[in-house]
Each structure stands twice: as C-alpha cells, then as structure tokens.
Specification:
Number of strands: 13
Oligomer: single chain
Largest sheet: 5 strands, mixed
Order of helices and strands: EEHHEHEHEHEHEEEHEHEHHHEE
Number of helices: 11
Bound molecules: oxa(dethia)-CoA
Strand order of the largest sheet: 1-7-6-4-5
Helix content: 25-40%
Distance between the termini: 18 Å
Radius of gyration: 19 Å
Shape: globular
Length: 332
C-alpha cells in the first residue's frame, strides 16, 4: 500500500462569550486573583451559555475549520470528537455533530483521552488518512464547567470551556504529520477522574449528594506527571522526527498551568519566542486547548507553509501525546 501523508487542511475554534474572571471567583470561593495568577497564570476563562452543550461549540468550530479548509461537510469521510464532557453518554457527540453538519457520508465516533484528546484524535485521523480515508474532521471539545464543583477552590479556578476543529487530508511529501508519540499510564487514573455517572457508580441520590459527578483531582500528582511527561514525550517525538529543538518554529503545549509550561520549556531549552501561551485568557480547556492555540496562531498569520510545529499534551487517563507537524499542504 502506498503511504499517504496526512496534514491539516484547515483549522477553527469556538469559545463562549461569557468570561469568568479571577475577581468573580474571589466572590465565590476563598481565593485571590494574586494566588490564581501566581500559581496558574490564569486571569480569566470562558463559560458556555446554560443552553449550550459540547455539540454546540463543536459545530461552530467545525464550520470554521471546514471553511478554512475549503471542504464541504458532504465530503467528509469521518468525524472524530475528542471529549470527556459529551452532550450525553450516548449517542456520541460526533454523531450529533455529523447530523447537524449534514455530513451524510461520514462515520462518527467519540474518543476519550482527557486533555490529550486533540493529539490522540489527530494521530488516529492522520493514520486513517494514510490508509485512504480522504477527509477527516477532528474536534476537541470540553465544557469542564459542567463537571466542576464551584465550591472547590482547588479545581474551580483552573478550567474553562472551548472547542477546536481541524480538517485532515492528504498533503505533499514531507508535510503534515511528521511524527507522533502517544502513551498512557492507567495506574494514575485516580489522580484525575469523574467518579460517578458511569457503570461503576450509576447516578443516584447518594452519588449526587457526595459530589461524585464533579471532577476530582490530586493537583500535585498531576503537576509532577505533567512536567515529567511533557519533557520526555517532546524529546521522544523530536527524535522520531529526526529534528533538533532549533528546527521547531512553534512549541504549542497543553494550556493547563503556566508553571507546568515554563518548567517544561526550561527543561527543553525552548526560548519564549517559540512558545505559544494563551492559558491566561482561557484557563484549561481540556481537549480543546491545543487546537484552540493552533487556531489562534493560524488566524494571526503566525503559521507559514513549511513551519515545524510541535504540540504536546497530557491529561486524564493518565494520557499523553505529542506530535510534530510541518504546516501547509505542500504539493499534494
Ligand atoms: O489538564 C490536566 C488537568 N490538571 C492540571 O493540569 C493540574 C495540575 N496541577 C496544578 O496545576 C497545581 O497542582 C494546582 C494549580 C492545582 C495547585 O497548585 P499547587 O502549587 O500544587 O498548590 P497546592 O495544591 O500544593 O496547594 C497549596 C495551598 C494549599 O493550602 P495549604 O494546605 O498550603 O494551606 C491549598 O489549600 O494553596 C491552597 N489553594 C488555594 N488557595 C487559594 C488551593 N487552591 C487555592 C485557590 N486559592 N484557588
């Protein structure tokens, strides 16, 4: 079988209008703007309107990505939605998006890899493009506000809502996905989880009363894992790509905490001008975070044909993923 190189044809994002500031959080829990800024780098985050669910933001991001790629919904072969906050357990949010887009030719499924979801979905999609599925829509979307306990100061200051989408298709030799590295360590699953509402702990009066439908996190453990894995995975993916860090134009890490980003960048010797950071404006948007950063870079005209971009994420699972992409379509 001839190998088909897969790349990003177009990208788009969607963020809710409503801004939740640190000052507002000061009125909700025992915290301060100074603590949140110094411990996380976050100044504000976006919260989806009450009537909106994951598919609403996903649809908006998808429409932008399709327009950017000059692809119509009817041409799509597959839709993959990375999310841990789907509209509901089933049907898959990807199927809801498929219907609303009118992507009648596309198969559709959800993928659960926490904040690594966008990288995971890009890798799955790129490998399927390589086997002949021509056009794949990948979406990373999370509304973590829906599973956040706004009386728990150790988590409620961190998260925000958002969506990002990318259209994948064949690109010229040397372009698109150059290398990827995914992994999981399920032994750390307890460090970041939503305990109830699944088949282990079905929803009941007791689970709701115990707050088990909220996200629970051992922040310190996730922090240590994140700093270690961002460095290790980045090093491994660069080696696979046969590139030195100097060859990379943009490092786009998962936007969880400025201290995690800076510690990883320092370890890898990445200069500030190559590091993309928007955590101050959105907080941690989970599966949307990396795609949202890429969409902003693209919209601002900061991504040129031929640029090498390195994305790296970590999240619930625990999972991680990194990827080197050579931007543009080349001579496809
Ligand atoms: O995408 C993956 C998702 N998860 C993450 O990326 C999270 C990774 N972890 C982190 O970002 C950090 O661990 C946190 C930001 C969650 C916490 O920062 P930390 O420096 O690890 O703080 P800590 O948990 O060690 O807490 C230090 C102190 C504690 O008080 P005591 O016990 O020292 O008196 C906390 O109770 O800070 C307190 N604290 C707060 N104080 C004010 C925790 N949250 C807050 C808050 N405002 N919002």
């Amino acid at each position: 079988m001839t190998h088909i190189q897969a790349g990003i044809w177009g990208i788009g994002a969607a963020i809710p209008e409503r801004i939740l500031t640190n000052q507002e959080l000061e009125t909700m829990v025992e915290t301060s703007d100074a603590w949140i800024r110094s411990r996380t780098g976050i100044q504000e985050r976006r919260i989806a309107a009450r009537e909106h669910a994951a598919s609403d933001l996903a649809l908006e991001a998808a429409e932008r990505a399709l327009e950017d790629a000059a692809v119509s919904a009817g041409e799509l072969d597959m839709i993959i939605v990375a999310t841990i906050t789907p509209d509901m357990a089933f049907p898959a949010t990807a199927c809801i998006v498929q219907d609303r887009l009118g992507a009648s030719k596309a198969s559709a499924f959800d993928l659960s890899a926490g904040c690594s979801g966008f990288v995971y979905a890009l890798d799955v999609g790129a490998n399927l493009v390589a086997t002949g599925r021509a056009r794949i829509l990948v979406i990373g979307v999370d509304l973590l506000s829906r599973v956040t306990d706004y009386s728990d100061r150790s988590t409620c200051v961190l998260f925000g809502d958002g969506a990002a989408a990318a259209v994948l298709g064949p690109v010229g030799e040397g372009y698109g996905v150059v290398a990827a590295e995914l992994g999981a360590d399920g032994s750390g699953g307890d460090f970041l989880k939503l305990p109830a509402g699944g088949s282990r702990r079905p929803a009941s009066h007791d689970t709701v009363k115990a707050g088990e439908h909220y996200l629970h996190m051992a922040g310190n453990e996730v922090f240590k894992f994140a700093v270690r894995i961002m460095g290790d995975s980045t090093t491994r993916v660069l080696k696979k790509a046969g590139l030195s860090p100097e060859a990379i134009r943009w490092f786009v890490p998962h936007q969880a905490n400025i201290r995690i980003i800076n510690a990883s960048a320092q370890r890898l010797g990445i200069p500030d001008e190559k590091l993309y950071v928007n955590v101050q404006r959105y907080g941690n948007t989970s599966a949307a975070s990396i795609g949202l950063a890429l969409a902003e870079l693209s919209d601002a005209g900061h991504l040129s044909e031929g640029d090498y971009v390195l994305i790296v994420g970590f999240g619930a699972g625990l999972t991680w993923g990194s990827m080197v992409i050579r931007w543009g379509r080349g001579e496809s």
